[in-house]
Write a structure and sequence with these properties.
six-stranded mixed beta sheet; 6 helices
Length: about 210
Protein backbone atom coordinates (compact mmCIF):
# COMPACT_ATOMS: atom_id res chain seq x y z
CA UNK A 1 0.00 0.00 0.00
CA UNK A 2 1.30 3.47 -0.92
CA UNK A 3 2.05 5.95 1.85
CA UNK A 4 0.52 9.45 1.83
CA UNK A 5 3.92 10.78 0.67
CA UNK A 6 4.09 8.32 -2.26
CA UNK A 7 0.55 9.24 -3.29
CA UNK A 8 1.38 12.94 -3.21
CA UNK A 9 4.52 12.56 -5.35
CA UNK A 10 2.73 10.33 -7.88
CA UNK A 11 -0.21 12.71 -8.35
CA UNK A 12 -0.20 14.55 -11.67
CA UNK A 13 0.82 18.19 -11.45
CA UNK A 14 -1.39 20.89 -12.95
CA UNK A 15 0.22 23.39 -15.34
CA UNK A 16 -1.38 26.14 -13.22
CA UNK A 17 0.51 24.77 -10.19
CA UNK A 18 3.77 25.15 -12.11
CA UNK A 19 2.83 28.79 -12.78
CA UNK A 20 2.07 29.23 -9.10
CA UNK A 21 5.35 27.53 -8.18
CA UNK A 22 7.36 30.01 -10.23
CA UNK A 23 5.52 32.88 -8.51
CA UNK A 24 5.52 31.53 -4.94
CA UNK A 25 6.59 27.92 -4.25
CA UNK A 26 5.16 28.14 -0.74
CA UNK A 27 1.59 28.32 -2.03
CA UNK A 28 2.03 24.81 -3.48
CA UNK A 29 3.54 23.59 -0.21
CA UNK A 30 0.53 24.95 1.67
CA UNK A 31 -1.89 23.30 -0.75
CA UNK A 32 -0.19 19.95 -1.30
CA UNK A 33 1.79 19.20 1.85
CA UNK A 34 -0.13 21.02 4.56
CA UNK A 35 -3.70 21.52 3.42
CA UNK A 36 -5.25 24.36 5.41
CA UNK A 37 -8.80 25.55 5.37
CA UNK A 38 -8.86 28.94 3.68
CA UNK A 39 -11.65 31.22 2.61
CA UNK A 40 -12.03 32.09 -1.04
CA UNK A 41 -10.37 35.43 -1.79
CA UNK A 42 -11.68 37.92 -4.39
CA UNK A 43 -8.72 36.90 -6.60
CA UNK A 44 -9.78 33.23 -6.57
CA UNK A 45 -13.33 34.22 -7.49
CA UNK A 46 -12.00 36.32 -10.39
CA UNK A 47 -10.12 33.29 -11.68
CA UNK A 48 -13.30 31.18 -11.77
CA UNK A 49 -15.25 33.90 -13.57
CA UNK A 50 -12.53 34.45 -16.16
CA UNK A 51 -13.61 31.50 -18.31
CA UNK A 52 -17.14 32.84 -18.69
CA UNK A 53 -15.81 36.30 -19.58
CA UNK A 54 -13.44 34.82 -22.15
CA UNK A 55 -16.13 32.81 -23.94
CA UNK A 56 -18.45 35.83 -24.06
CA UNK A 57 -15.72 38.02 -25.54
CA UNK A 58 -14.28 35.53 -28.00
CA UNK A 59 -17.66 34.47 -29.42
CA UNK A 60 -17.97 37.78 -31.22
CA UNK A 61 -14.52 38.12 -32.69
CA UNK A 62 -12.46 36.40 -35.30
CA UNK A 63 -8.91 35.06 -35.30
CA UNK A 64 -7.82 38.21 -37.15
CA UNK A 65 -7.31 39.93 -33.82
CA UNK A 66 -4.49 37.46 -33.16
CA UNK A 67 -3.26 37.89 -36.76
CA UNK A 68 -4.41 34.30 -37.37
CA UNK A 69 -7.06 34.56 -40.05
CA UNK A 70 -9.18 31.42 -40.33
CA UNK A 71 -8.13 29.99 -36.97
CA UNK A 72 -10.57 27.62 -35.25
CA UNK A 73 -11.20 28.30 -31.56
CA UNK A 74 -11.31 25.59 -28.89
CA UNK A 75 -12.28 26.65 -25.35
CA UNK A 76 -11.11 25.11 -22.09
CA UNK A 77 -8.99 22.44 -23.78
CA UNK A 78 -7.81 19.52 -21.65
CA UNK A 79 -4.09 18.84 -22.18
CA UNK A 80 -1.79 16.17 -20.80
CA UNK A 81 1.83 15.05 -20.93
CA UNK A 82 2.45 11.45 -19.87
CA UNK A 83 6.17 12.12 -20.08
CA UNK A 84 6.04 14.89 -17.46
CA UNK A 85 2.88 13.71 -15.65
CA UNK A 86 1.46 17.21 -16.02
CA UNK A 87 -2.12 18.13 -16.92
CA UNK A 88 -3.92 21.32 -17.62
CA UNK A 89 -6.92 23.10 -19.07
CA UNK A 90 -5.90 25.81 -21.54
CA UNK A 91 -8.45 28.65 -21.70
CA UNK A 92 -8.37 28.84 -25.49
CA UNK A 93 -6.46 27.10 -28.30
CA UNK A 94 -6.36 28.68 -31.75
CA UNK A 95 -5.86 26.08 -34.45
CA UNK A 96 -4.78 26.66 -38.04
CA UNK A 97 -5.55 23.45 -39.95
CA UNK A 98 -3.03 21.80 -42.24
CA UNK A 99 -2.94 23.09 -45.83
CA UNK A 100 -1.15 21.88 -48.94
CA UNK A 101 1.84 24.06 -48.04
CA UNK A 102 1.76 24.37 -44.23
CA UNK A 103 1.41 21.85 -41.39
CA UNK A 104 -1.28 22.14 -38.69
CA UNK A 105 -0.45 24.84 -36.15
CA UNK A 106 -1.82 25.56 -32.67
CA UNK A 107 -1.49 28.55 -30.34
CA UNK A 108 -2.36 28.51 -26.62
CA UNK A 109 -4.14 31.54 -25.12
CA UNK A 110 -4.35 32.17 -21.38
CA UNK A 111 -6.73 34.71 -19.88
CA UNK A 112 -5.40 36.84 -17.05
CA UNK A 113 -7.69 38.92 -14.86
CA UNK A 114 -5.15 40.57 -12.61
CA UNK A 115 -3.28 43.83 -13.11
CA UNK A 116 0.36 44.02 -14.20
CA UNK A 117 0.63 42.74 -17.78
CA UNK A 118 1.85 39.33 -18.91
CA UNK A 119 4.15 38.29 -16.09
CA UNK A 120 7.09 35.87 -16.11
CA UNK A 121 5.09 33.08 -14.42
CA UNK A 122 2.30 33.32 -17.02
CA UNK A 123 4.92 33.02 -19.76
CA UNK A 124 6.28 29.84 -18.12
CA UNK A 125 2.75 28.42 -17.90
CA UNK A 126 2.17 29.13 -21.60
CA UNK A 127 5.42 27.32 -22.46
CA UNK A 128 3.98 24.40 -20.49
CA UNK A 129 0.75 24.53 -22.47
CA UNK A 130 2.78 24.56 -25.70
CA UNK A 131 4.60 21.38 -24.57
CA UNK A 132 1.36 19.70 -23.44
CA UNK A 133 -0.44 20.73 -26.60
CA UNK A 134 2.28 19.30 -28.83
CA UNK A 135 2.21 16.02 -26.90
CA UNK A 136 -1.62 15.80 -26.60
CA UNK A 137 -2.34 16.64 -30.23
CA UNK A 138 0.66 14.84 -31.74
CA UNK A 139 2.22 18.02 -33.14
CA UNK A 140 5.90 18.24 -34.02
CA UNK A 141 7.99 18.81 -30.84
CA UNK A 142 9.04 22.47 -30.42
CA UNK A 143 6.75 23.52 -33.32
CA UNK A 144 4.66 25.93 -31.22
CA UNK A 145 6.64 29.16 -31.17
CA UNK A 146 3.87 31.60 -30.21
CA UNK A 147 1.23 31.93 -27.50
CA UNK A 148 -0.90 34.77 -26.15
CA UNK A 149 -2.05 36.25 -22.86
CA UNK A 150 -5.44 37.96 -22.98
CA UNK A 151 -5.55 40.68 -20.33
CA UNK A 152 -9.03 41.37 -18.94
CA UNK A 153 -10.89 43.59 -18.33
CA UNK A 154 -8.77 45.82 -20.64
CA UNK A 155 -9.09 43.26 -23.47
CA UNK A 156 -5.45 43.51 -24.53
CA UNK A 157 -3.74 40.64 -26.33
CA UNK A 158 -0.05 40.16 -25.53
CA UNK A 159 1.95 37.83 -27.82
CA UNK A 160 4.37 35.55 -25.94
CA UNK A 161 7.19 33.92 -27.95
CA UNK A 162 7.68 30.32 -26.79
CA UNK A 163 11.44 30.03 -26.57
CA UNK A 164 13.56 26.99 -25.71
CA UNK A 165 14.60 28.81 -22.55
CA UNK A 166 10.95 29.17 -21.42
CA UNK A 167 10.34 25.49 -22.18
CA UNK A 168 13.40 24.56 -20.07
CA UNK A 169 12.16 26.79 -17.25
CA UNK A 170 8.81 24.97 -17.25
CA UNK A 171 10.40 21.51 -17.18
CA UNK A 172 12.89 22.53 -14.47
CA UNK A 173 10.03 23.92 -12.37
CA UNK A 174 8.16 20.61 -12.71
CA UNK A 175 11.26 18.79 -11.44
CA UNK A 176 11.75 21.21 -8.54
CA UNK A 177 8.08 21.00 -7.57
CA UNK A 178 8.21 17.19 -7.52
CA UNK A 179 11.38 17.31 -5.42
CA UNK A 180 9.57 19.52 -2.91
CA UNK A 181 6.65 17.04 -2.80
CA UNK A 182 9.12 14.21 -2.17
CA UNK A 183 11.08 15.95 0.59
CA UNK A 184 8.22 18.16 1.92
CA UNK A 185 10.87 20.85 2.45
CA UNK A 186 9.29 24.23 3.25
CA UNK A 187 10.28 26.45 0.28
CA UNK A 188 11.49 30.03 0.34
CA UNK A 189 8.81 32.72 0.19
CA UNK A 190 7.97 34.63 -2.96
CA UNK A 191 10.25 37.45 -4.06
CA UNK A 192 7.10 39.47 -4.76
CA UNK A 193 6.31 40.29 -1.12
CA UNK A 194 3.84 43.01 -1.98
CA UNK A 195 1.36 40.19 -2.83
CA UNK A 196 1.64 38.52 0.60
CA UNK A 197 -0.92 40.67 2.47
CA UNK A 198 -3.64 39.52 0.01
CA UNK A 199 -2.54 35.85 0.01
CA UNK A 200 -4.94 33.30 1.52
CA UNK A 201 -1.96 31.62 3.29
CA UNK A 202 -0.40 34.71 4.85
CA UNK A 203 -1.38 33.71 8.39
CA UNK A 204 0.58 30.44 7.92
CA UNK A 205 3.70 32.28 6.61
CA UNK A 206 5.09 33.92 9.72
CA UNK A 207 8.21 35.48 8.18
CA UNK A 208 6.88 37.54 5.29
CA UNK A 209 5.26 40.62 6.78
S1 LIG B 1 2.07 34.75 2.16
FE1 LIG B 1 3.57 35.27 0.57
S2 LIG B 1 5.22 33.77 0.84
FE2 LIG B 1 3.43 33.00 1.98
S3 LIG B 1 2.40 31.64 0.52
FE3 LIG B 1 1.44 33.64 0.32
S4 LIG B 1 2.57 34.69 -1.35
FE4 LIG B 1 3.79 32.95 -0.66
Amino acid sequence: MLSDEDERVRLPIAASEVRQWTFCPRVIWHRRVMPHRVRETPKMELGRNAQTALERLEKRRLGARYKLVGAQRHFNVRLESDRLAVRGFCDLVLELPETLTTPRHAYPVEVKRTRGGASAHHRVQLAGYAILLEESWGLTPNSIDQAFVLLLPDDIIVPVPITLELRDQFEQSVQDLREMLRTERFPNPTKHRSFCPQCEYVRFCGDVL
